[in-house]
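Quick illustration for those who missed Monday's session on complexes.
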Amino acid sequence: MEVPTTIVAHLAPDLDCIAAIWIFKRFGGAHDYQVRFVPAGTTLDNLPADSDPHVIHVDTGLGRFDHHQRHVRTLSAAELVRRSLVGHDVALERMIRQVTLIDNALPSEQASSDLGMLADSFNILFEHDPDKVVELMLPNLDAWYAHEVRQVQLGEAFASRIEFHTPWGRGIAMQGPFGGSSVMAYRAGAVLAVYREERHNWMGIAAQSRSSVDLTPLAEALAQVDPHADWYLHPSKRLLLCGTDKAPAKRLSALDMRGLITVIEGLHLAVR
Ligand SMILES: [Mn+2]
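Prediction with manganese (II) ion bound:
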């Protein structure tokens, strides 16, 4: 019979420690890990780390998944677990790189510092219950991973973008399972970001918030060319949407990306 694996972590588990546990639970193949907690730096029953193949120490004990003996700021317990357990996974690499930065007190992205803050805060609320802290953090790490998977997809959609001219300035069109990132488009100098979200065949046009773009003429043109679709002009006049998670479209656009670009390129704005 399979002996259940014990993961040994340190008390008041921080983001690195929790992420190491999370990788074992999500990518480790076994579902029956039990977690024990010891004072940071020590081991379970004071036995040397890695002396029992069914006992894994993370972020404590100076074993194969502790980084405190290695004196480099490019490592963390989570990074050591990732390297040992998971093959090529760009989303996971992005995520754990941030965990490593935080664990080494190096500047990191906002989202990851937020998660570090959340772990620290759960340790205030559940000072004597590290199991509870881990239990509450695991779904947050699942959500963060989902975010990174989407970011990777958005990056790929941006890499195969179409650039075109609009009456307001540069337009960038992107399509992919999650559509495209207007943030990436604006960073590349676009005034208008156009996307097609392939999972639902939703489309949208977004104008940079500091621009003076008014998408009313485009909404009017689409009412002629694409009359059966649920195009929605946001009150800001800078968003024109046919289906979003918040408001799924019942009637999809009949246009493909090229068709939509053609409508935008063909706009003739009245001189004001
Ligand atoms: Mn650590």
